[in-house]
Amino acid sequence: MTYHSSLIQELTLEEKIQIIHAAGLFRTGAVERLGIPSLKMSDGPSGVRQEFENDVWNPVDDTTDFVSWLPSNTCLCTTWNPELAEAFGKVLGEEARGRGKDVILAPGINIKRTPLCGRNFEYMSEDPTLTGRMAAPLIQGIQSQDVAACVKHFALNNQECDRMSVDTTVDEKTLFELYLPAFYDAVMEGKSYSIMGAYNKFEGDFCCENETLLQTILREQWGYDGVTISDWGGVHHTEQTALHGVDIEMSVTSDFDEYKLANPLLEKVKSGEIPETVIDERLERIFRMMERIQLGKDTRKKGCINTPEHQQTIQHIAEEGIVLLKNDADKLPLKPSVKKILVVGDNARRTHAAGGGSAEIKALYDISPLLGIRMVLGGDAQIDWLPGYYVDNEKHVSGEVDWQAVSLGVDYTTVQGREQFDAAIRPKRERYLQEVLDAAPAYDEIIFIGGLNHAYDVEGFDRPDLTLPYGQDEVISALAKITKNLTVVLINGGPVEMPWIHQVSSLIQTSYCGMHGGYALARVLFGEVNPSGHLAETYPLHLADTPTEKYHSYPGEIDDNGQRHVHYAEKLMVGYRYYQTEQVPVLFPFGHGLSYTSFSCDDFRLNVRGKLQEPDFSVTVSCQIENTGSREGKETLQLYIGIPEEGQPDRILRNFHKVSLKVGEKKEISLTLKSRDFATYSPEKKDFTANSGTYRLYLGTSVENILYETTVAL
Ligand code: BGC
């Protein structure tokens, strides 16, 4: 079967319409008469989601949909390793095909504008260059398996608070320089076969119906010939969508024939209000995608699930994604010969795969940190666990109750009477804390494993603040007072405040890092793996320091009609761009990550070739990097530039390279920039241009730890 556009002529109007909207919660309509099957879709960014009934939001209670649980996109991104992104994509694509899917609703690449966003764990970074550089190979990896990636959510979907309706405005320059580049890379470099429109509005129009985003930018300026798919329930109007909105309408209810691109569209085409050609154009793109994924061909890859190779890749990504944030006096790694260990905290035992909203996974298995520690240490060590803090059923409400969460049976109703509630749980917290303080002196090492969970890192809700929940600050601080042998591990989708930071000597940060996460963590803790992750977002000291707080630009205001508006008043000053420029001290800077070995860099050189506007122009910064410690390890060199233009941040990441070095090994590293790396967007010219001027260059191992700094006049 070939899905050639000539097929369009053979379809009746009714049949054409079947193909452009859902006929099931996760599939489009088929036209069996002509051998055109449904497109079968599935979430999501961390693996292939469980099966749902066709028209009810009920999981099919089956045992055939257990799959490999991949690390979150946040964890993948902290590897700063594009090769691992491709390997990740290949696993995801193979599993998607192994489950018979045609489209996998991943990756999530929205910019982390505020650390409060509940879906940040599904996204990569606060920086578009890093996001784009990781997303493109990931998408290629997926699509190498004859499955379409569906990169999401286009665009400006940066908060969950009123996510289905919030109206976002942002100046054009910021849009093009900060919020669109990763999507540009995803479609131009990654060649994503499909892209998902976002729920929110942009300048008054829903993103799934938005002419500026979907036609002017995506089709006309970028020349995108792939398929646009709505977020589930993101389409609201027939005409607007038919004329300049998404190609395929998906939603969450079972009245499929009443979807906006179903009967209502049929009527309008019949009455001549909407030309049939708008449907034909969609079919052309959909058939093109069917061809690209080899739909119905014998040669199509058939995929596989739950293979040992997948599990190995997942472990490798988790190991590289773990970030060593602090390690005073080389406290870590812990000695594997240690005999008595007390592990404290709910996240030591909790498995996270089944939470978070649409990124939930029915994991074949999920190795908790406590199990991982047992796997690494074997049977001779005494490993005890205490909760340390009490996890109540506290739920926060900063968005509407969400159907994804409701489908999971989670009760997100507001906790009434906060004070009574606190009073009821306080005695429990005090008891748990006392228990741990009494026990601690008898142990050689205490490992606190806490952080957040999917009550906080979750679709549909933003976090209320950046504090660690369940009274964890008090537990960490109290433990730090009575023992030097304390290691803190936080498992989070994003930053938290750490008022106890100066009391602890060693700190590890991981995101939700897949089915081998606990084992990977244990291998890092006990030195089987040398950590090499680097933060892909800034950890601010306090919520009050974040740019959206400073500019009062989150979560926006509600007008008299109940419409929420958010204006990105901070413009380009998001994440490290803001903290660096305004010299706001942070807890841990963007790009930060330590190793158990040490590196030294020297012999820095700058090489400029050609003229800024010429095609062969390049600027290369080179250096020699040497592993000067006693273990093999990896370092990530990061190249930032300072653009001499009013309103630009002090420094912007433009290139990076992760290098592996054996003990004593020395390598030459070169990081190259092209003219587009010096370009900024001009709203007047409606294009990017690189202007002459004196640019600053910074080479470092984080945005703050700069090893070499120079200027170049171009
Ligand atoms: C989410 C998407 C997801 C879709 C299908 C929506 O609520 O925003 O990311 O792919 O549901 O589950």
Helix content: 25-40%
Q: Determine the mean pLDDT.
A: 95
Helix/strand-derived category reads alpha/beta
Cα-atom radius of gyration: 25 Å
Number of helices: 20
Characterize the main sheet: 6 strands, mixed
Which small compounds were modeled alongside the protein? Answer: beta-D-glucopyranose
- The backbone outline, from C-alpha atoms, is globular
Terminal Cα separation, in Å?
55 Å
Q: Give me the count of strands.
A: 29
Instruction: Report strand %.
Output: 15-25%
- As residue ranges, the low-confidence spans are 396-401, 405-416
Side by side, the strands of the main sheet go: 11-16-15-14-12-13
Chain-wise SSE layout:
Blueprint (H helix, E strand, L loop, with lengths): L6 H4 L2 H7 L2 E3 L2 E2 L12 E3 L29 H6 L3 H17 L4 E3 L22 H16 L4 E7 L12 E3 L2 H8 L1 H8 L5 E4 L3 E2 L2 E2 L4 H11 L5 E3 L8 H7 L18 H8 L6 H16 L15 H14 L1 E5 L12 E5 L24 H9 L4 E5 L16 H5 L10 H22 L5 E7 L20 H11 L3 E6 L14 E5 L6 H9 L13 E2 L6 H4 L6 E2 L5 E4 L8 H6 L4 E3 L10 E11 L8 E10 L5 E10 L9 E10 L4 E8 L1 H4 L1 E3 L4 E3 L4 E7 L5 E8 L1
Parallel strand pairs: 3-4, 4-5, 5-7, 6-8, 6-19, 7-10, 12-13, 12-14, 14-15, 15-16
Antiparallel strand pairs: 1-2, 8-9, 11-16, 17-20, 18-19, 21-22, 22-25, 23-24, 23-28, 26-27, 28-29
The structure holds beta-D-glucopyranose.
Task: Summarize the structure in short.
The protein is α/β, with parallel strands linked by helices.
Structure, described:
The model is unreliable at 396-401 and 405-416 (pLDDT under 50). A hairpin with a 5-residue loop joins strand 18 and strand 19. The relative contact order is 0.12. Helix 4 runs antiparallel to helix 12 (308-321) and helix 5 runs parallel beside helix 7 (181-188). The radius of gyration is 25 Å and the shape is globular. The N and C termini lie far apart (55 Å). The strands form 8 sheets. Strands 11-16-15-14-12-13 form a 6-stranded mixed β-sheet, with helices on both faces. Strands 3-4-5-7-10 form a 5-stranded parallel β-sheet. The chain has 714 residues and is an alpha/beta fold. The chain is 27% helix and 20% strand. The structure holds beta-D-glucopyranose (BGC). Residues 43-44, 105, 152, 231-232, 358, 404 line the site of beta-D-glucopyranose.
